Here is the input.
Amino acid sequence: AISAIPIAGGPAVEVLAAVIRAPIERRRDEWMGAVSDALIFLDRENRIDLAALSNDDQFIDAILEATRIALRTSKEEKLAALRNAVLNSALKSEPDSVIREILLNIIDGLTPVHIEFLRLYRYASSTDADGFSHGIPALKNSPLLYHIIWKDLSDRGLIEDNAPIPSKELGTVYCKRTELGERLLKFISHPELEAR
Here is the structure.
């Protein structure tokens, strides 16, 4: 669209490309370096076979999708989740390739706050935004954000609304992590932690 602007179009495109090329290349190099280092470590520990992975189309699909997502974020928490998803794909921690694809697509739409909420709270209440947000600074004093995160996680099938939990109060909606939510957390957890 910028190139359609008479006179300034061509140079404007070149300036824009010059401005964003270096940060994109830096992100790509940092991402690929972190993933490569972690895969080499797992190979040296005899937990994966890098040569075999290079011929594993499902693993290649997973790393390409994770890379596409990683290049669009600067959030360290999300990058760590994506790196762990790649490592767990290499380790076949999630044996179902379709579920791996679904989990990567879910990660794409999550923020670090979504992930932290899901990690911290096995159970949560919709009416106690302040009580449950004390562990997540971004949610403190923000009932609106709390409910947006809640709805996003519910819509993605990661939490179950009105799940029976201890000491349920009348008029309060409760949630708990679903099997898919548990599988997502395992998929984005560091493999060293899962091995213990």
In short: The mean pLDDT is 84. The longest strand covers residues 174-177. Residues 9-44 form the longest helix (36 residues). The two ends are 53 Å apart (CA to CA).
